[in-house]
Amino acid sequence: MRVSEIQRFCMHDGPGVRTTVFLKGCPLHCAWCHNPETQKPGPEILFWQNKCVGCGACAAVCPVGAHRLTEDGHFFDRSVCKGCGKCAEVCCAGALSPSMREMSVREVYAEIERDRAFYGTSGGVTLSGGEPLAQGDEALSLLRLCREGGIGTAIETSGFFDGDLLPALIPLTDCFLWDFKDGNDERHRQYTGASNGPVIRNLLRADELGAVTALRCIMVRGVNMEEDHYRAIADLWGRLCGCLYVELLPYHAYGGSKMTALGGRDNGRTDWIPSEDDMARAADRLRALGTNLK
Ligand code: SF4
Ligand code: SF4
Ligand code: SF4
Description:
This protein has about 290 residues and is of the alpha/beta class. The protein folds into 2 domains: about 1-40 and about 100-255 and about 265-290, TIM Barrel (Alpha-Beta Barrel), CATH 3.20.20; about 45-100, 2-Layer Sandwich (Alpha-Beta Plaits), CATH 3.30.70. The chain is built from 11 helices and 12 strands. The strands form 3 sheets. Strands 7-1-2-8-9-10-11-12 form an 8-stranded mixed sheet. Strands 3-6 form a two-stranded antiparallel ribbon. A hairpin with a 2-residue loop joins strand 4 (about 65-70) and strand 5 (about 75). Helix 3 (about 105-115) crosses helix 5 (about 135-150). The longest helix has 13 residues, at about 135-150. The protein starts with a strand and ends in a 6-residue tail after the last helix. It binds iron/sulfur cluster (3 copies). The site of one iron/sulfur cluster has 12 residues, from loops.
């Protein structure tokens, strides 16, 4: 599996205490992505320029000469980087970090099992990302091991994945935290790079097959905090039998610094952050439309 990170003692990724496994690779490119290091399927190096002390250790080990230290600073040529991770291994300043590691399904399961004592009756593992179901076969194998081991399972998904996975997936998954980013397809395409059609089709099919879901809706001021989106959320809520609640999550700009560390432009948009009043108004509207808000 291509694993970006494993976080322990998570309280917001499903019920109870959870170990969250972030998998690398996502078919979407959301403009507000808070985990941009998980988007590309392959390895990348995050470079935190402000932490670099200029020791030159990375340049000494890089087999392709991607790091160059000059009087003007440290230049990192990502176009030649092979993602071997050697530079991050020798950086003592924490200025370089790999965006993923390869692990076998059994190795990931062993990490999850270490926290078994903390899961209690409601906790367990959450597969997140990126889009965890972009690695569908591996995710199924891991979920099977968790089932056999009596560990609770949840998936945080964009909903944009191969729908043929659903019949095998649903008996192995206690709960899906399902993103619904925008009910307006034109905006969805503009801000995520893809149509919301597959997301909605997969969700309705999952519901037919008995999935337990929670709808997670990121609120981005000036983008999707619109009446047509609220109505689409309420419409979906009304059509789903197994949906427990709708959760509204305010956009935050934390992904911006990671974009910079990946060599991109800081895309953190502070003007997109909704105020408490904006969130309260959205919640009031969704309650008025009949949804069960968390
Ligand atoms: S090893 Fe780390 S601290 Fe040293 S030059 Fe490279 S990035 Fe900077
Ligand atoms: S990951 Fe490997 S190839 Fe890429 S910059 Fe580091 S040492 Fe060089
Ligand atoms: S679906 Fe999630 S991981 Fe993928 S681009 Fe969107 S916010 Fe980022």
